[in-house]
TrEMBL record:
GO terms for biological process: organic anion transport. Its main location: membrane. It comes from Rattus norvegicus (Rat). One of its GO terms (cellular component) is plasma membrane. This is Solute carrier family 22 member 20. GO terms for molecular function: transmembrane transporter activity. It is found in: Cell membrane. Residues 526-541 have a biased composition (Basic and acidic residues). It comes from the Eukaryota.
Length: 556
């Protein structure tokens, strides 16, 4: 008997599972606000050079005329953001006058920003424009570096300390560092606390998903995993609304950070995974948690009959060969786990690099940034509904592969759309982003089901590290557009298509399959799969020989 049979006996997908899942997914939704927060807090509004202090606009009552006399225009007739004339050129106010050859200089006295949409952003506050414009992307890269470090740190800690402790700490760390970020007075301090915020991303996402999966019977895992994706989508929609209502960046930063203090307070009620407790010899606490589950699911009598011996009878065979300590090498030591790990490294990296390449620079589409953010969130809803259906009735492998390939093709096709068709480009990019978002959440669930409980959190943490590498690589690949505009979409699209093909070729289906608990059980399942295929091939050869056809090997 498997552990999932015990959960079914205690009510299956009951009240406990529903409440537990909701309490875990709510913070995951608001976590999306932090991931895409710099689309608003670091927005770069239109700007131009400040005039020298010894000049005044008193010489004219027309501020537009003053601007034309002091700031050169680019080819689109818009004031240059990083240049000004060394002296006011009043002659340019006359018709048919050229500015060719007029001396210019940099913005030595600062910049004037258009505050009609954004009253304040970090770009305005610390002048992250012109020569300093790369610092804006640096801040996001530092956040993603924190996510990378958190994936490596919390993935390992969760297998050693349990799922709950790192999760509770992540809530507290995000609440504190997020609130402090809203009050810092320097760009360097801002980056430091954004790094600390990024670390909590993996601690919250990975541990929340593991707790949901490990407390959920087999028949409820797919829906629970997809709900994580919907919560992330809801977070993007919440961000669009909150950012529209709260324009100053400091207040916006505080508004999306304060709720995590509430999550920290109620997270103490959440029980630890009984799978993990049993795996690490804490059977008494596991039984206590299971009795609470039974009571909440209306199965109090079944819960009272639970003893350590009864619970052990459900998991005796599964945990027989468990080792008490694991290392990252366990992800590569045995052939079955090694193949899964290598394939997932590529899938997570490719999915992430394409996803963040599309979603982290909304101003490039030339439409309202709030509208684009909302569109990028709304498009995920139908995409994930399709993903949910296919994962339930078709399988995980085909779903992940199809969405990755489709997203890659859309990204590549988008580079053939003329730039003046901004609405079409935005819609097509949103569709590609929706496919990538669906693939992302599917692969989260798929990864949790592929790895055994013994190293599940370590495996998911390692896979997430590759996703964070993709997030770091995305802005670097985007800069290749300065060399050739086709390089970024081709890079994003090609990696996504190749990852989709790798899923079909190297990963096995996990739909309606009980979770594997140990590395040994995983390898046994792989060997059984190979033996089954070998048997099927031999039977096919025998059938062909009976029909008078040559054996397959001779045909080849």
């Amino acid at each position: 008997m498997a552990f999932t049979d015990l959960l079914d006996a205690l009510g299956g997908v009951g009240r406990f599972q529903l409440v537990y899942t909701a309490l875990l997914l709510l913070p995951c939704g608001l976590l999306a606000c932090h991931t895409f927060l710099q689309n608003f807090t670091a927005a770069a509004p239109p700007h131009h050079c400040q005039h020298p202090a010894n000049y005044t606009e008193a010489t004219t009552n027309d501020s537009g005329a003053w601007l034309r006399a002091t700031i050169p225009l680019n080819q689109h007739g818009v004031p240059e953001p990083c240049q000004r004339y060394t002296e006011p050129q009043w002659a340019l106010l006359e018709p048919n006058t050229s500015s060719h050859g007029v001396a210019t200089e940099g913005c030595k006295d600062g910049w004037v920003y258009d505050r009609s949409i954004f009253p304040s952003t970090i770009v305005m506050e610390w002048d992250l424009v012109c020569e300093a414009r790369t610092l804006r992307d640096l801040a996001q890269s530092i956040y993603m570096s924190g996510v990378l470090v958190g994936a490596a740190l919390f993935g390992s800690l969760a297998d050693r300390l349990g799922r709950k402790a790192p999760l509770v700490w992540s809530y507290l760390q995000l609440a504190v560092s997020g609130a402090v970020t809203a009050y810092v007075g320097s760009f360097s301090a801002y980056c430091i606390f954004r790094f600390l915020m990024g670390m909590t991303f993996s601690g919250i996402i990975l541990n929340s998903l593991s707790l949901v999966v490990e407390w959920m019977p087999t028949r409820g895992r797919t829906v629970a995993g997809i709900l994580l994706g919907f919560s992330f989508t809801l977070g993007q929609l919440i961000l669009a609304g909150v950012a529209y209502l709260i324009r100053p960046w400091r207040w916006l930063q505080f508004a999306v950070s304060a709720p995590f203090l509430v999550f920290f307070l109620y997270s103490w009620w959440l029980p630890e995974s009984s799978r993990w407790l049993l795996l690490h010899g804490k059977a008494q606490q596991a039984v206590q948690n299971l009795r609470k589950v039974a009571m909440m699911n209306g199965r109090k009598a079944e819960g009272e009959r639970l003893t350590i011996e009864v619970v052990s009878s459900y998991i005796q065979n599964e945990f027989a060969s468990v080792r008490t300590s694991n290392s990252i090498l366990d992800l590569f030591r045995t052939p079955g786990i090694r193949k899964v790990t290598c394939c997932l490294m590529m899938v997570w990296f490719s999915n992430s690099v394409a996803y963040y390449g599309l979603a982290m620079d909304l101003q490039k589409f030339g439409l309202s940034i709030y509208l684009v953010q909302a569109l990028f969130g709304i498009i995920d809803i139908p995409a994930m509904l399709v993903a949910t259906t296919t994962m339930i009735y078709v399988g995980r492998r085909a779903t992940v592969s199809s969405f990755l390939v489709l997203a890659g093709l859309m990204v590549i096709a988008n580079m053939f759309v003329p730039e003046d068709l901004q609405t079409l480009r935005t819609v097509q990019a949103a569709l590609g982003k929706g496919c990538l978002a669906s693939s992302f959440i599917c692969v989260y669930l798929f990864t949790g089901e592929l790895y055994p409980t013994e190293i599940r959190q370590m495996g998911m943490g390692f896979a997430s590290v590759n996703a964070r590498l993709g997030g770091l690589a995305a802005p670097l690949i985007t800069t290749l557009g300065e060399i050739s505009p086709v390089l970024p979409p081709v890079s994003f699209g090609a990696t996504s298509v190749l990852a989709g093909m790798a899923v079909i070729c190297f990963l096995t289906e996990t739909r309606n399959v009980p979770l594997v608990e140990t590395i040994a059980a995983m390898e046994s399942r792989v060997k059984e799969g190979h033996s089954k295929r070998d048997t099927e091939q031999k039977n096919e050869e025998i059938s062909l020989q009976q029909l008078g056809a040559p054996p397959l090997k001779e045909t080849i």
